[in-house]
Amino acid sequence: QLQLVESGGGLVQPGGSLRLSCAASGFTLDSYVMCWFRQAPGKEREEVSCITSRGGTTYYADSVKGRFTISRDNAKNTVYLQMNSLKLEDTAVYYCTADLRFGPYGPGTPGYWGQGTQVTVSS
Predict the structure, then answer these.
(1) Rounded Cα–Cα distance for residues 79 and 29 (Å)
(2) Are strands 10-12 and 117-121 parallel, antiparallel or unpaired?
(3) Among 30-39, 46-55, 59-68, 99-108, which is the least confidently predicted range?
(4) Residue 107: what pLDDT?
(5) How many angstroms from the chain centroid is the CA of residue 113?
(6) Most CB atoms within 10 A, among 1, 58, 68, 71?
(7) Quick check: helix, strand or coil at residue 103?
(8) Burial 35-58 (b: 16+ CB within 10 A, else e)
């Protein structure tokens, strides 16, 4: 069964850093576009960052550009999101996703989602 499992979330002060990981099981990531989405309470989901199957192309939302870095290690079947200079508004549940397309993503896509990991930025 295809599964994505996120880890690395937690509580951090403004200006701090976290590294999220997303490990896949039941399939290999190397054919998939991998993305990170987030959703804060009362807000719509936001596409944070994506990376193509071999890592040649990346996308970042304007809100995280210059602060977040997405990467992947296909040999480890894992995708990462390095988050630096965290702000209060980065607080959300972060989801790892997989899809064969790069996007844009509408309802029902991306095709596969993890269960999410909570990131809380607070002083």
Answers:
(1) 9
(2) parallel
(3) 99-108
(4) 82
(5) 10
(6) 68
(7) coil
(8) bbbbeeeeeeeebbbbbebeeeee
